[in-house]
Amino acid sequence: MNRDKIINKISRVIIKIGSKALAREDKISYDRIKFLADDIHLLRKSGIECLVVSSGAILAGNEYFDFNLKRLNILRKQAVSSLGQVKLMSYYIKAFSRKGTNVSQLLLTNDIFDDRKRFLNTRAMILELLKMKILPIINENDTVSVDEIMFGDNDILASKVAAMMDADLLVLLTDTDGLYDNNPKTNTKATLISNLDEKSFDREFINDTQSEISFGGMSSKINAALDVSKFGIPTIIANGKNKNVLRDIFNMKNIGTAIIPSSIKLKSRKKWIGMGPRSSGKLFLDSGAADAIVNKRKSLLPSGVLKIEGSFKKGQQVVCVRESDNSPIARGLISYNSDEINLIKGMKSSEIERILGYKYSDEIINRDNMVLM
């Protein structure tokens, strides 16, 4: 599928605006927010539902202090973020009120993806906002996030929101024109890549840099793009500092880098498995079981399990790893707990009841509860 066909089919888009795209001399630029708001207003007028994932809270808060952000501890960053989030939202409210658009603030943590009930409730609430013609402005809840529930950066948050909301496109706005075959900031011969097929992508040519302004980088954008590709969602990485960047994308101009996904689209339950919950352990598989899962879309039977890592309960998510090369191949919801699997690993399904005294299922992970990685 080419870029024009993708753009023509879009009815819902996730627009992630990075700190670098909003920054001017290490400060949030209201003018940049205003320009982006104008573009988003035009998209909404054309019938496209828009959701914004915006970084910038820490940068906005730091305008009061001028700290070296890379050297701040987590508590100080959270404090600065709580101050900056108010200022950031005031800019968005001001910019969109010019167009008669109401905006709402959603501060999310990663644990909403661990619990299917919370996941579905969050999705339903966002759908209601869209129905009411309210523009959601989403950010990570930096103030309360700890390692166990943080996304890490807003590129990952944007990819999870895109999958959760069945978006047709993810747009990642940063301070470069897209993905290059080398680092354009250090190599003048670097060439912009216009279109990239997910299947042919090789992440090893990424030469990433990070700055004092943002906490992601190009590698996190590639990870986000590849994450949503498995849900059939394309990504465009473009320069958010360029005026009219969004209207140019939707006017079919060949700007930025488009990462085209495979044609496979996951069902809603598998989509939830694919984006969360967090994995509780690992199953190491022999080559026969790994090949059956990857090439034949088969369920995982106990006979294919060589060893386990971690302690987990029935129904939690685990990662399946090909033991021969230590490569993760799938993740899924487990039918037995770790103690039970330790007893039945390597055995035939017909032996489960004799060993345990009961049997929940013939499979360790049913194929309907599994997503390839």
> Pairing-aware structural class of the strands and helices?
alpha/beta
Overall tally of domains: 2
- Percent range for β-strand residues: 15-25%
Largest sheet: 8 strands, mixed
How many strand elements?
15
Average of pLDDT: 86
Please give the order of strands in the largest beta sheet: 5-6-4-1-7-9-10-8
Which second-level CATH architecture of the largest domain applies? 3-Layer(aba) Sandwich
Q: Enumerate how many helices there are, as a single number.
A: 13
Helix content: 25-40%
Query: Which sequence of SSEs, written as H and E, runs from N to C?
Result: HEHEEHEHHEHEHEEHEHEHEHEEEHHE
CATH superfamily of the largest domain: Acetylglutamate kinase-like
- Global outline: elongated
Fill in the CATH topology of the largest domain: Carbamate kinase
Q: In a nutshell, what does this entry contain?
A:
The protein has 13 helices and 15 strands. It has 373 residues and is α/β, with parallel strands linked by helices.
Can you give a write-up of this model?
This protein is an alpha/beta fold. Helix content is about 35%, strand content about 20%. The protein has two domains: about 5-270, Carbamate kinase, CATH 3.40.1160.10; about 280-370, Roll (Archaeosine Trna-guanine Transglycosylase, Chain: A, domain 4), CATH 2.30.130.10. It contains 13 helices and 15 strands. An eight-stranded mixed sheet has the order 5-6-4-1-7-9-10-8, with helices on both faces. A five-stranded mixed sheet has the order 12-11-13-14-15, with helices on both faces. A hairpin with a 2-residue loop joins β2 and β3 (about 25-30). α3 (about 30-45) crosses α5 (about 75-95) and α7 (about 155-165) packs parallel to α8 (about 220-230). The radius of gyration is 22 Å and the shape is elongated.
